[in-house]
């Protein structure tokens, strides 16, 4: 195994040494377009009719969906300019027949394809990998996000919780609608060399009624989420940028009450105990340079965060819950060190959470940005003691730099988790991504962890994690993803996440996709075959084999679906609990298969739904699972969504079975662009509890927020234990106000 580590180092050297570094055709962007410095005033009102706009040449938009390369069906006139303070983007978004104009939603960071959109992705460092996004709809709402990993998997690599300071105005007129963006350069991070600043841009317009997407530059639909990929952006050039470096100070205050029903001293019943809450804290943001930002946080609080989705586990793997706290979501791309499928050297939910409970964060610091050719990230957080968990300090340092070409990098990361009682966990990792030719990539990753009471040896494979990956990132034509992964017995990253421990083996996917053309009702479809084969890293025994055959299709009206066949062979050396310990599978060897059918109606309509049905054998029994997610948008201001999970598992020979239901209700009301009311109610029959989360937000300007948050847990089946449970397990009502001062 030492030989493998030496080989890894040699391969990294080979691809990064100057003698072997070659530019692959098509990997470098086209010559930059110079953005016009605006002369003359702009009346920022959402209507780009000033003389300053007319002097700027419009960018040619090209259709991406449904007929790639065609001219847009509606005139779309987009221009860009800048002055000493702001980057401006304007759009005249004509609609010859107003019945095709869709203006739905007004809330901050609203997301839906049932409304028209206009916006852009901006690769501020021109690294072809990371970017920020800004978008609006005809109602003038503000939506911003970050992109990492070249948006390889949109659901994972696009972060809508990121917010910064910017403005947009939109107007609906006789010929359609128009918009003006005004982005302060002080809100962006970029690098200036010899007075010139290069960025990458992708413009897009989405017309919901026509299911039509147009972009600049033209992007190939053979790539997944092509319209969001920084690697496909057009390079633009600014001259003489010297933005201010303001300091943002955002104090907050919280007031409220928490109530919990607890057993009385005699354990004969429950009493409601109330605890008032009055707290304060704050954040500070300072731009050290144009490309380096310092964030400080004091007494960090996440009262406004939505509850986690309820889940039932029917696998051998740990459940992964995504981060939802904005402080950790901001700049999360910098600290990403992924081993795929949720596995990561850095998992921010380890900070400030313990056994599902919130732990006080005293404060911390974060520095992110670029120094020379290096992208850097530094994080340090201090948490309080909670029950048997000591006070802890969490640290992370991440470094990356481009090599060979702009889609390749090498990097490293170090994490630390230090308990004030003397416990420690230190982990480090080295990684590299190399665009070898065309759309083929080689990814190499290695990490090790060291902790107290462990036999820590740097040349030992036991505390080591490895990943080798070769992929062709095509969704049209031939694509593939070949991996080998290894997780050692003692690999335990203290601020990381591992779905499964102590395993190794190959994982591969091969696919072929088609674009049928204008004459077909299908926009795209593809067939794929994938599988993995894992063994235990300690015993060497086989654990699991999986093969998946899938056909995916999507129409030009944005309907889509999957037909998936799954086959498993499982060697269980232990009893596997299922659900909420509602059933179990004894040790043994099992072979089973099941079929999944899924359908997604067009999300561009006011009513849409996702349906999924699974049935087949399951270990020594069988299963039926069903999932439904209908959504309805009532007018411009109301969104409603339901979720329903059904899992029925039966082992007839062992006379064991269970049925579980999870119901969810989401609602959002946005009467204006500054107010929103959101609710999220869940009922899980496995835990026999209803969980309610309601949040009101008043956001008159960026950095100025007022929240009212209500949470309550309601028990069902009150007589399942003695003494009888109360209806309410507890509730919390909190008010939080944040105001940002700019200096």
Describe this structure in words.
It is a single chain. 4% of the residues lie in helices and 55% in strands. With 743 residues, it is mostly beta strands. It has a domain at 31-239: Immunoglobulin-like, CATH 2.60.40.1190. 36% of the residues are buried.
Overview features:
single chain; mainly beta; Immunoglobulin-like; 24-stranded antiparallel barrel; 4 helices
- In the CATH scheme, the class of the domain at 31-239 would be Mainly Beta
Unreliable segments of 5+ consecutive residues? 1-28
Percent of residues in β-strands: over 45%
**Coarse structural class:** mainly beta
Radius of gyration: 27 Å
Assembly state of the chains shown: single chain
Span between N and C termini? 55 Å
**What is the count of helical runs?**
4
Any idea what the CATH architecture of the domain at 31-239 is? Sandwich
Tell me the major beta sheet.
24 strands, antiparallel, barrel
Mean pLDDT: 89
Overall strand count: 44
Helix fraction bin: under 10%
Q: What is the third-level CATH name, the topology of the domain at 31-239? A: Immunoglobulin-like
Which word captures the global form?
globular
């Amino acid at each position: 195994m030492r030989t493998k580590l030496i080989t890894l180092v040699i391969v990294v050297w080979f691809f990064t040494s100057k003698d072997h570094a070659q530019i692959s055709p098509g990997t470098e962007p086209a010559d930059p377009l110079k953005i016009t410095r605006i002369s003359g005033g702009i009346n920022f009102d959402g209507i780009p009719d000033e003389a300053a706009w007319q002097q700027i040449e419009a960018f040619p938009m090209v259709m991406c969906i449904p007929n790639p390369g065609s001219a847009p069906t509606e005139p779309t006139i987009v221009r860009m300019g800048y002055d000493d303070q702001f980057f401006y983007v304007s759009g005249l978004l004509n609609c010859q027949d107003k019945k095709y104009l869709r203006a739905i939603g007004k809330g901050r960071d609203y997301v839906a394809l049932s409304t028209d959109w206009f916006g852009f992705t901006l690769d501020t460092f021109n690294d072809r990998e990371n970017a920020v996004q800004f978008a609006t709809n005809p109602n003038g709402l503000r939506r911003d996000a970050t992109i990492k990993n070249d948006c390889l998997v949109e659901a994972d690599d696009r972060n809508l919780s990121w917010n910064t300071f910017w403005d947009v105005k939109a107007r609906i007129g006789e010929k359609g609608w128009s918009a003006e963006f005004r982005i302060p350069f002080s809100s962006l991070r970029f690098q200036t060399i010899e007075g010139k600043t290069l960025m990458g841009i992708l413009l897009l317009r989405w017309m919901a009624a026509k299911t039509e997407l147009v972009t600049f530059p033209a992007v190939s639909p053979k790539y997944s989420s092509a319209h969001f990929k920084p690697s496909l952006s057009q390079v633009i050039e600014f001259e003489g940028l010297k933005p201010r470096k303001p300091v943002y100070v955002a104090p907050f205050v919280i007031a409220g009450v928490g109530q919990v029903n607890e057993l009385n001293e005699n354990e004969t019943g429950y009493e409601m105990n109330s605890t008032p809450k009055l707290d304060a804290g704050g954040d500070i943001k300072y731009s050290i340079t144009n490309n380096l930002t310092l964030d400080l946080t004091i007494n960090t609080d996440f009262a406004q965060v939505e509850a986690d989705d309820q889940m039932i586990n029917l696998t051998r793997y740990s459940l992964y819950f995504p981060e939802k706290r904005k402080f950790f979501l901001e700049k999360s791309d910098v600290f990403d060190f992924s081993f795929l499928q949720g596995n990561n050297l850095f998992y921010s939910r380890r900070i400030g959470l313990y056994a599902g409970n919130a732990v006080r964060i005293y404060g911390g610091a974060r520095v992110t940005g670029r120094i020379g050719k290096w992208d850097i990230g530094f994080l340090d957080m201090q948490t309080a003691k909670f029950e048997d968990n000591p006070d802890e300090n969490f640290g992370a340092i991440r470094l990356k730099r481009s090599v060979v070409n702009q889609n390749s990098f090498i990097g490293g990361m170090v994490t630390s988790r230090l308990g004030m009682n003397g416990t420690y966990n230190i982990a480090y990792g080295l990684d590299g991504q190399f665009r070898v030719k065309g759309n083929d990539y080689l990814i190499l990753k290695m990490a090790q962890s060291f902790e107290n009471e462990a036999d820590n040896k740097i040349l030992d494979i036991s505390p080591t994690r490895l990943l080798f990956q070769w992929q062709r990132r095509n969704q049209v034509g031939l694509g593939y993803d070949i991996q080998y992964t290894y997780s050692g017995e003692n690999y335990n990253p203290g601020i990381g996440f591992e779905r499964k421990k102590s395993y190794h083996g190959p994982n591969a996917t091969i696919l072929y996709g088609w674009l049928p053309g204008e004459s077909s009702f299908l926009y795209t479809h593809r067939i794929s075959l994938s599988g993995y084969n894992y063994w235990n890293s300690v015993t060497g025994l086989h654990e699991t084999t999986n093969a998946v055959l899938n056909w995916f299709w999507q129409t030009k009206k944005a309907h889509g679906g999957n037909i998936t066949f799954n086959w498993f062979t499982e060697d269980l050396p232990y009893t596997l609990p299922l659900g909420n310990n509602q059933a179990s599978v004894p040790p043994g060897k099992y072979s089973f298969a099941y079929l999944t059918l899924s359908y997604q109606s067009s999300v561009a309509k006011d009513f849409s739904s996702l349906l999924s049905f699974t049935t087949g054998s399951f270990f020594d029994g069988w299963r039926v699972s069903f999932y439904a997610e209908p959504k309805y948008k009532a007018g411009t201001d109301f969104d409603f969504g339901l979720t329903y999970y059904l899992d029925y598992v039966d082992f007839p020979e062992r006379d064991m079975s269970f049925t579980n239901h999870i119901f969810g209700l989401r609602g959002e009301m946005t009467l204006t662009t500054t107010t929103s009311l959101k609710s999220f109610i869940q009922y899980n029959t496995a835990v026999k509890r209803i969980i309610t989360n309601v949040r009101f937000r008043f956001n008159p300007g960026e950095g100025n927020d007022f929240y009212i948050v209500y949470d309550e847990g309601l028990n069902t089946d009150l007589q399942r234990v003695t003494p009888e449970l109360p209806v309410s397990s507890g509730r919390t009502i909190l008010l939080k106000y944040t105001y940002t001062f700019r200096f």
